[in-house]
Amino acid sequence: MTPPDAHVPDPVILEKTATRRMVWVDVARVIACILIIANHMAFYSAELYRWIWAEFLAARTPFFLLAAGYFVGRGAFGPLDGSLFLWKRSWFLFRPYLVWGLAAAVLIGWSTLHEYYASYQPMYAWLKGEPGSGFWPALAAFGRALGIAGHPVDAPMWFLRDIIIYTAVAPLLHRLGNYLLWVGIIMLSLNYFALDLADHDYPIANSLGFFLLGMYISRYSLPFLTESVRRYAVPFLLATLALTWWLVGHREQHNSMLIALGMLGLMSLAILFTEWFPRAAKWVAGLAPACFFIFGTHYIVIILLRESGWITWRGEAWDVLWLCLVPVIFALLAGLFFCMKRFAPRLVPLLGAYGK
C-alpha cells in the first residue's frame, strides 16, 4: 500500500525538468557524475585517491543503481506485470553501451596506462599478428573488453552493464514482492566478498542489492521519500562527512552499510542544495541529460590525456590541477552533448541514451 504524498517543502517540488524528475534527483545525478570523474582523475596522488574513495564518495554508483531500480519499479519504462522482460528499455541502454565499449577498445584498450590492460592484451596481440597469439584467446579478450566475464574497457560502464541486465529481468524480480527487501539486504551483506572476488568482472552482489532496494521502495511516492530523507538531511550529511574523514585513515573498512550511509548523505546534499538554492539547483538539474554521455566518454578522455604526456605535475601541484581538470572535463563533455542535441539530435539516443 502506497502512503499518501507527504508535504514537501516548497522549493523541493515535483517539476517537469528535462528528465521529468524532481529537481533534486537530477542534481544528485550531476553530483554523482562529477564524483565519478574525480575518482578516475585521482591517479597522481595517493592521498587524494584515499579521500575520493572514502565511503561518502563511493556512494556515487550505488545511487544510480538505486535510482534505476526505483524508476523501473515505478513502471517508468514499461509495466512489470504480465511480461517476462523489459527488452525495449534494455536495448535503449545497450546501444550506447556497445558504441562506447567499441570506441574505448579502439582508443584506449591498448594503453598500458589502462588499469586492466593485461586483460585485453590477447586481442591486440592477435590483431597485430604476433607469434603465439590465437583467435579464441583474442575473442575472449574482446568479450572482456565489453564486460563479458571481465571489466569493461570503458571502465565506469560496469554499473551500466549491471543496470541493463537487471532492467531486462525486472519483471521477474518484481515477482519477489515483499521479498525484494530481504533478498536485497542479503545481497548487500555479501558486498565485501563480491568486490574482492569479482572486481566487477560480473554483476556483483551489492549492485543487485541496491537495484532491488530501489525496486522495493518504488512502492512509495517520490515526494514521500523526499520528505522522509529531508527530515533528517542535516544529521545524515554531517554524520557522513565525519565518517568520510575517519575512513581516510581506515581504508580497511568497506561494507554496504557505509556506502548506504554515504548514499543518504549524497541525497541529503542534493535535497538541501535544491531547497536552499532553488535557482542554481534548476540550472544544475538542466545538465543531467548529459550524464550518460559523460559516463561513456570521460574515461576515454582521461586515458588519452594521460597518454599525451603533458601532465608532469605531482604532489600538491597535481592536486590543484586536479581541482581544475575535473569541472573542465565535465563542462567540455556536457557542452559537446548539448551541441549534439541541437545540431545532430538523431545521435543523442545512440550516444547519450537520452530521448526516444
Kindly summarize this structure in a few lines.
Belongs to the acyltransferase 3 family. The protein is mostly helical.
Write the layout of secondary structure elements.
Elements: H1 23-41, H2 46-52, H3 55-58, H4 60-73, H5 87-107, H6 117-127, H7 135-145, H8 158-168, H9 170-174, H10 179-189, H11 191-198, H12 205-217, H13 222-230, H14 233-247, H15 256-276, H16 278-285, H17 291-308, H18 315-343, H19 348-352
Protein name: Acyltransferase 3 domain-containing protein
Membrane topology: Multi-pass membrane protein
GO biological process, one term: enterobacterial common antigen biosynthetic process
Quick one: how many beta strands? 0
Number of helices: 19
- The pLDDT mean sits at 84
Main sheet?
Answer: none
Low-confidence stretches: 1-8
Query: Which band does the percent of strand residues land in?
Result: under 5%
Shape: globular
Alpha-beta content class = mainly alpha
Subcellular location: Cell membrane
Protein name: Acyltransferase 3 domain-containing protein
Transmembrane segments: 23-45, 51-72, 92-113, 163-190, 202-220, 232-248, 254-273, 285-305, 320-340
Family: Belongs to the acyltransferase 3 family.
